[in-house]
Specification:
The structure holds 2 protein chains of 2 kinds.
Chain A: H1 5-32, H2 38-42, H3 49-59, H4 65-77, H5 93-128, H6 133-147, H7 150-164, H8 183-221, H9 224-232, H10 236-274, H11 279-289, H12 292-320
Helix pairs in contact in A: 1-12, 5-6, 5-8, 5-10, 5-11, 5-12, 6-8, 7-8, 7-10, 8-10, 9-10, 10-11, 10-12, 11-12
Chain B: H1 2-35, H2 40-43, E1 55-58, E2 62-66, E3 80-87, E4 90-95, E5 98-102, E6 107-116, E7 122-132, H3 138-168, H4 176-198, H5 200-217, H6 219-222, H7 258-294, H8 296-311, H9 314-325, H10 329-339, H11 342-356, H12 359-367, H13 371-407, H14 418-427, H15 437-464
Parallel strand pairs in B: 1-7
Antiparallel strand pairs in B: 2-5, 3-4, 3-6, 6-7
Helix pairs in contact in B: 5-7, 5-15, 7-8, 7-10, 7-11, 7-13, 7-15, 8-11, 9-10, 10-13, 11-13, 12-13, 13-14, 13-15, 14-15
The chains are: A mainly alpha, B alpha+beta.
């Protein structure tokens, strides 16, 4: 098969489009089979049958599902995600999602970047000193944090902080007097508040990335070319940098992309526990408030974000690894 | 003149106003006297307790005690309500106008309601709750046992039928080929077991798992109380007692023994772990096999579906599914099962693709073997070892997801699991108090059990899918 970058991109893009369409359809169907009539949820109690019929007609609930789906797609591409039922009554969903998305991006983006950096470094350290005490202790710690549910770790962290440092902010993304601060004050306040959830997220993800890096590097170290490098008389530091790491990074890139979904899930737990006003907390509030438009939009955003992360990882992998099959 | 007229107006107005106010104030008590029927509120200052009529409920249902018919000088809302419930094993005291709890024990509960008003005058009333046996349908009662019996029984039954046919045809019941195969299987199992016992971490994981299995199987003998679903043990023990020789793991906010809860919780976790991964293994293997074997169009469609489930963030999907399907123990298992099959499908498909090109499959096609036979006899046996190591990791993930769903209140609130214990501990504020034992033990159990499965999975993976790591 010819190794053609353009056809590869084309294929991947078509797959991406199909999957996104599948997700939109899934999203559409799922919220139609949810318990409860959407009309019933918004229509005020005691409305006459005529009013209900008029509203159903206005929202297009009487039309066949296919034409409803087309309307749904058109609305989404026009940036209209409907209005919220209960989280903020009759407020457009885009206005609610926007700030939440920004908050989550700060948390998840910083968290993932830090966790990848630290995790790869720690995993490399453990793999390079395989079998020593350092490796044993480090691997033990990685395993414990990898197996510990994120919400449990977040809770323990929260309870420790509220017990020993009661002044430390444990809720929200900013303090009460946030709006009166100047720019640097705002940034500082946000950083101060984000530190605890960020710490919980990073520690949990470091473990996963370190385990992946360690096992990938150990796999690479058994390859023939490593022996050749030693036989050539290369220094072990050079072997690590120029031979082992570039090859070990390939599976790491794939798994990191797959992990974006995992990180997002972990961030939901952390946002709920620390009351951090992000996308996860919003999903949570929407679930309990039965706010279907908000839930639908949040779910769609989370899924599409993961999809796009995977898509970019595929493209990156194609550039990195000449052996990738088309 | 004008001044006179003004003052006259003021006088008239004042008189009118006073009349209106007077009529209103006079009318108000009349109206309220008409609305509230019991006369004793007006006449007696003493509080009157009314626990309501006797109740008949069936086993496992929720008893709701309602004292709002009680009366007092300030009305029913201002009274202090104390319910004393005599359980077969002890007395429980509950506070509140309306209280409810579950009863699982047969027999009768003597309930005494004591109301106390702000002047410290009290009155008591008694009632009885009769608990009748609940008629569970056979399926409801034994679904778990039936399921496991089916998993073992159906293949065994099929084999027995086959053996019977062979005997009828005059062949030996156990054909020599299958004898040989069994011997081969035994040797390979023995070999794997020998390799496995060499791995320290694998043995550690296995021994932890065995301890938890013993805990789950012998839960009724290890725990101090019988029924995990019962919350009627509230306040039987002192609440938040620290670990001692009597309560090994202390007691929780409701006075329940944490050790017993932890022991019962292992049942829920292991059941969910095993059944959910069974669902996902069956789904994943079927999808992976048919995609890999049939190729082309089915492959494309199934793989897009797999990609979709693989890529979708599992947590929101799980939340949404749990919302749609409702809160019950069986639904948790199904939800975890249908959200976690995709990685298995991928692994199976990749293996099937490589097996399909092997010579023996090509030969089988040449002989004219059907698709089903080739899959069953040639492809599946080569896929099983891969799936097996993957299953162990899936169980770990399922336990993880279960504890999460239970913690975030999406599970069955009546089934005691470690996640539910953590949730109760969290909502009762133990994380900010000294009661560390209430969350430390279930939390540690989750971590240790998941770790045991990871260790076993890792050790098996190294044996079944060797990667020459020994250099």
């Amino acid at each position: 098969m010819a190794r053609d970058f353009r056809s590869y991109i084309f294929r991947k893009t078509v797959y991406l489009a199909i999957t996104i369409l599948l997700i939109l359809a899934f999203n559409f169907i799922l919220f139609r089979i949810m318990p409860g009539d959407p009309a019933r949820a918004v229509i005020p109690k005691g409305a006459s049958d005529e009013v209900i019929a008029m509203l159903r007609d206005k929202w297009g609930l009487d039309e066949p599902y296919l034409s409803q789906f087309v309307t749904y797609l058109v609305n989404i591409f026009q940036g209209d995600l409907g209005t919220s039922f209960t989280v903020r009554v009759n407020y457009p969903v885009t206005g609610i999602i926007g700030p939440a998305l920004a908050n989550t991006l700060v948390l998840v983006g910083t968290g993932t970047a830090l966790a990848v950096l630290a995790g790869v470094m720690l995993g490399r350290l453990a793999a390079w000193r395989r079998g020593t005490v350092t490796d044993r202790v480090a691997s033990g710690f990685f395993l414990i944090f990898y197996c510990m549910p994120t919400f449990l770790f977040a809770l323990i962290l929260l309870s420790l902080f509220t017990k020993y440092i009661p002044d430390w902010p444990s809720r929200g993304a900013y303090g009460e007097d946030y709006r009166y601060l100047d720019l640097w004050g705002k940034i500082g306040d946000r950083a101060y508040h984000t530190l605890l959830p960020l710490g919980a997220l990073v520690v949990e993800e470091i473990a996963a990335f370190a385990i992946i890096t360690r096992s990938a590097l150990i796999d690479v170290m058994t390859e023939e070319y490593m022996v050749t490098a030693v036989a050539k008389g290369m220094r072990s530091k050079d072997i690590l940098h120029s031979h082992a790491m570039p090859n070990a990074m390939l599976p790491v890139v794939t798994v990191v992309a797959m992990y974006v979904g995992w990180v997002l899930s972990g961030s939901i737990m952390i946002e709920v526990i620390f009351s951090y006003p992000g996308l996860g907390k919003l999903t949570w509030d929407a679930v309990w408030g039965e706010d279907y438009p908000v839930l639908q939009a949040a779910f769609m955003l989370e899924t599409v974000a993961v999809l796009i992360a995977n898509y970019s990882a595929d493209l990156l992998l194609f550039k990195l690894d000449p052996r990738v099959k088309i | 003149m004008r001044r006179h007229r003004t003052s006259a107006c003021i006088v008239i107005l004042t008189v009118l106003l006073t009349c209106t106010v007077l009529s209103l104030t006079c009318a108000a008590p009349e109206a309220s006297a008409e609305v509230t029927p019991p006369v004793r509120i007006m006449q007696e200052d003493e509080p009157v307790a009314d626990a309501g009529p006797d109740q008949n409920i069936s086993q496992g249902d929720r008893v709701s005690l309602n004292g709002s018919m009680s009366a007092g000088f300030e009305g029913p809302d201002e009274l202090n309500y104390t319910w004393t419930v005599q359980f077969p094993i002890g007395k429980a005291t509950l506070y509140g106008q309306v209280v409810s709890f579950k009863v699982n024990q047969l027999g009768q509960l003597d309930v005494t309601l004591t109301v106390r008003d702000s002047l410290n005058r009290t009155d008591t009333d008694e009632m009885t709750v009769y608990v009748f046996e609940k008629r569970l349908s056979f399926l409801e009662k034994y679904w778990l046992i039936l399921l496991f019996a089916a998993i073992v029984g159906i293949p065994l039954g099929l084999w027995l039928i086959g053996a019977a046919f062979r005997v009828l045809r005059g062949e030996p019941a156990i054909p020599p080929t299958s004898k040989e195969k069994t011997a081969l299987l035994l040797t390979s199992v023995r070999k794997i077991a020998k390799q496995y016992t060499k791995s320290v971490s694998g043995m550690l994981g296995l021994s932890i798992l065995i301890i938890f299995l013993i805990m789950a199987v012998f839960a009724p003998y290890l725990a101090n109380f019988e029924d995990p679903k019962s919350t009627s043990w509230i306040n039987v023990n002192p609440a938040r007692e620290s670990p001692s020789s009597e309560f090994w793991f202390g007691t929780d906010f409701y006075g329940r023994d944490v050790w017993s809860l932890t022991v019962w919780g292992s049942r829920a976790s292991l059941t969910v772990g095993l059944l959910a991964s069974l669902i996902s293994i069956v789904l994943g293997t079927t999808v992976g096999l048919s995609a890999g074997y049939f190729g082309k169009f089915p492959d494309e469609i199934l793989m897009r579906l797999t990609d979709f489930f693989l890529v979708i963030p599992w947590l929101p999907l799980m939340i949404v599914f749990a919302m749609v399907m409702g809160r019950s123990f069986q639904n948790i298992i199904i939800v975890i099962g249908i959200t976690s099959w995709s990685s298995t499908a991928r692994i199976v498909r990749a293996q099937v693709l490589s097996v399909r090109e092997k010579m023996f499959v090509q030969r089988a096609i040449c002989i004219g073997a059907g698709d089903f036979r080739i899959i069953r006899r040639h492809v599946l046996p080569n896929v099983v070892p891969l799936v097996f190591a993957n299953t162990i990791l899936l169980i770990a993930n399922s336990i993880f997801s279960e504890s999460f769903l239970e913690f975030f209140n999406l599970g069955d609130p009546d089934v005691i699991s470690w996640g539910t214990m953590l949730e109760e501990s969290y909502s009762n504020g133990d994380f900010n108090s000294v009661a560390w034992w209430d969350y430390a033990f279930p939390g540690a159990c989750i971590v240790i059990l998941i770790m045991a499965f990871y260790l076993i999975g890792d050790a098996l993976d190294e044996i079944l899918n060797p990667k020459l790591r020994k250099r």
